[in-house]
Design goal:
The chain is mainly β and 254 residues long. The protein has 3 domains: 42 residues, no CATH class; 120 residues, no CATH class; 70 residues, no CATH class. 8% of the residues lie in helices and 43% in strands. It contains 1 helix and 18 strands. The protein has a 4-stranded antiparallel sheet, with no helix packed on it. A 3-stranded antiparallel sheet has the order 3-6-7, with no helix packed on it. Strand 4 and strand 5 form a beta hairpin. It starts with a strand and ends with a strand. The relative contact order is 0.12. The N terminus is likely disordered.
């Protein structure tokens, strides 16, 4: 007999153990699948497909020639260096995290990537380590699997420059604890079919402006945003397919 029952007898509720029955493998699988499906539903309900930044600390770059530059993300006097959702999985760290081995004279993309704690035997699905993440450096601009772009570091012959305020925190993904904006948009724009980015000019845009997006047609999500002068450029996670992708946007704090 199964070692699990439920308080309602319904097939959709998470079962619990009933003593003195033995633990049932069927019951264990059922409980895990119900919980996993519920979490996946929450992830799908989040803006931008399960990517969000609740809190982000302070970035500090250290230049060292020979491809040895690094960037640290500290809590900046707050509680966490990063508190976010990456691919539907909650990650959070208080200690300073480091991206290392940044090449000279390059643009490096700094990602938070999910990490695994165990990979079970056979064909069983692996489990991700609770709240942990890996600092990953990329140079192609293509986001690795299960990763969130947090900042861009640019090196030349003697210095390293970090741009973070124009990226994930400006996507309106619960940025710094502020829910994504969902009122009347300022305007809308399209990323044309098969394109991966679009630039929008806005009179009065400043470095302190916050840009909030709502996708209004099928297609890839926003990967990151860069601001420059009176314009911003939106980069998608992949080419716009099957047609152009339309976004509404609202700008706060001109």
């Amino acid at each position: 007999m199964p070692g699990y029952s439920t308080d309602t007898g319904g097939q959709y509720t998470i079962p619990y153990i009933v003593q003195p029955q033995p633990v049932s493998q069927v019951g264990e699988a059922r409980a895990a699948l119900i919980a996993a499906n519920a979490l996946d539903a929450i992830r799908r309900a989040l803006p931008n497909g399960g990517f969000a930044v609740f809190a982000e600390g302070t970035y500090t770059g250290t230049f060292a020639s020979g491809g040895n530059s690094s960037v640290g993300l500290s809590n900046g006097g707050g509680t966490y260096s990063l508190d976010a959702i990456v691919a539907g999985v909650w990650v959070r760290t208080a200690a300073t995290q480091y991206w290392t081995g940044i090449p000279d004279s390059t643009t490096a993309y700094l990602y938070a990537q999910l990490t695994e704690t165990n990979i079970y035997a056979g064909t069983q699905v692996s489990s991700r380590q609770g709240l942990a993440w890996l600092p990953v450096v990329g140079t192609t601009g293509i986001t690795p699997a299960n990763s969130l772009l947090l900042a861009v570091a640019t090196t030349n012959g003697a210095t390293i420059t970090i741009v973070s305020s124009a990226l994930s925190a400006d996507l309106g993904l619960f940025a710094k604890g502020k829910p994504y904006w969902n009122g009347t948009p300022n305007n809308s724009f399209q990323v044309y079919q098969d394109e991966i980015s679009a630039t929008v000019s806005v009179v009065g845009l400043t470095t302190n402006s916050k840009i909030f997006f709502t996708k209004t047609s099928p297609g890839p999500n926003i990967d990151y945003v860069q601001k420059a002068g009176n314009s911003f450029t939106v980069f998608l996670t992949g080419p716009a397919t099957p047609a152009a992708v339309t976004f509404d946007y609202h700008i706060d704090q001109f």
